[in-house]
Design brief:
Elements: H1 5-55
Length: 81
């Protein structure tokens, strides 16, 4: 069974779009996840500084937050430590 030119072009365009989506989706996911985690880390640091200022003690250094994993996959299958 041979398809005419129109359906073949439509199927090839659909295949190209699906392949591109399969490539771009994980990359976009990683970029958004990285942005989210960086924002969370910045917010936690800002909250810690506000709490330290309210208690009248020194704010924790930013290096403490370097021990927070950048990727949530670090916690899967193991206990965070």
């Amino acid at each position: 069974m041979k398809l005419s030119l129109g359906p073949r072009l439509a199927l090839s365009y659909l295949a190209v779009i699906l392949i591109c989506l399969c490539i771009v989706t994980p990359l976009a996911w990683l970029a958004v996840e990285r942005l989210y985690l960086n924002t969370q880390r910045d917010n936690i640091l800002a909250q810690a500084q506000l709490v330290a200022a309210a208690l009248g003690s020194d704010a924790p250094p930013a290096t403490i937050l370097l021990h927070i994993p950048r990727h949530p996959m670090c916690f899967r299958g193991s206990t965070p430590g």
